[in-house]
Specification:
Layout (H helix, E strand, L loop, with lengths): L5 E8 L4 H14 L3 E7 L8 E9 L15 E4 L19 E5 L4 H7 E2 L3 E5 L1 H8 L6 H12 L8 H8 L3 H14 L1 E4 L7 E2 L36 E5 L9 H5 L5 E3 L5 E3 L9 H5 L5 E5 L2
Parallel strand pairs: 1-4, 4-5, 5-7
Antiparallel strand pairs: 1-3, 2-3, 6-9, 7-8, 10-13, 11-12
Helix pairs in contact: 1-4, 1-5, 3-4, 3-6, 4-6, 5-6
């Protein structure tokens, strides 16, 4: 990899627009006559599952490397809940930038990360809700990324946003600009090793750990894995509207909605991924999706 190539890794959840953020960044760079690429990394997960997206940008040469970014210059975290689930700073280069969507003060975030990285924080969710009406922070975090790194110009996003969002382009550009203004920057200076606050990750046994002839059935979305950590929203029931029909339970793809002692239904939030199918199928509108605190 040539020295002038900048690599970006985006951490988000399905439905938050991390892949779109990477795409818009690449198009903005191309608009400035730079070479750029953008591509995602995710499986068949539903809304709320952790996903990755990557960028490479160079002002001078075509980019041939299509491998995932393992040693990024810039890391952007769209969902603050991922900080305790995934090592978002893994491989982040010394002197690199870490940009986080969070309601926490930058001083508080400095206690969670140590390393010689630049830190930037913005409450992107509040800006998105105010200006876009939804908690989708992809274009909002673009503004924070530009403020922290200057890798492209803010105005270079105007054309890509117009192409992607059409009539909604102006609102998205305004959200991007508002996040640019609201982003708080700081340097993290420490002589200690780079590290992140400890977190627990469920692991599936590797093939070397298996006995001959055994089959692993407790993988993926099973009782061993807290898939509830994937969600950014969860369902809440209004019993004044609920008629106890159980349609929500029938349509739940995780089978985590169960009848209670009072015959009303509730979701087990340990496994609920926040997909919103129950709320969509509830014909009495007794279920609404509420953002995770």
């Amino acid at each position: 990899m040539k020295q002038d190539t900048i690599e970006i890794r985006w951490h988000g959840r399905g439905g938050q627009g991390a892949v779109t953020s990477a795409e818009m960044t690449a198009l903005a760079a191309v608009h400035e006559d730079k070479f750029a690429q953008a591509f995602p990394s995710f499986g068949p997960e539903r809304r709320g599952a952790p996903v990755l997206a990557f960028n490479r940008i160079s002002p001078s040469h075509a980019i041939r490397n299509r491998a995932g970014v393992t040693k990024p210059d810039i890391v952007v975290v769209l969902d603050p809940g991922l900080v305790t689930l995934i090592n978002v700073t893994d491989g982040l280069k010394p002197g690199g930038s870490l940009i986080v969507n969070s309601t926490k003060a930058i001083e508080e975030l400095q206690q969670e990360f140590t390393g010689d990285w630049k830190l930037a924080v913005v409450d992107a969710a509040s800006i998105a809700r105010k200006l876009l009406g939804v908690n989708i922070v992809n274009t909002t975090m673009l503004g924070a990324m530009i403020k922290a790194t200057g890798i492209v110009k803010l105005e270079s996003f105007a054309a890509p946003l117009e192409h992607r969002f059409g009539a909604r382009a102006k609102a998205n550009f305004n959200a991007c600009s508002a996040a640019f203004d609201a982003t708080v920057l700081s340097e993290i200076t420490t002589s200690g090793p780079k590290k992140q606050k400890s977190f627990k990750v469920d692991k599936v046994p590797g093939w070397r750990d298996l006995l001959v002839g055994c089959a692993v059935t407790d993988i993926g979305n099973t009782k061993r894995f807290c898939t509830g950590d994937w969600k950014s929203q969860h369902p809440e029931w209004d019993n004044t509207k609920c008629i106890k029909c159980g349609i929500c339970s029938l349509f739940c793809p995780e089978a985590c909605i169960h009848e209670q002692a009072d015959w009303y239904f509730r979701a087990d939030l340990f496994f609920c991924k926040g997909c919103g199918i129950c709320a969509h199928e509830c014909w009495t509108q007794a279920i609404k999706m509420v953002e995770e605190a």
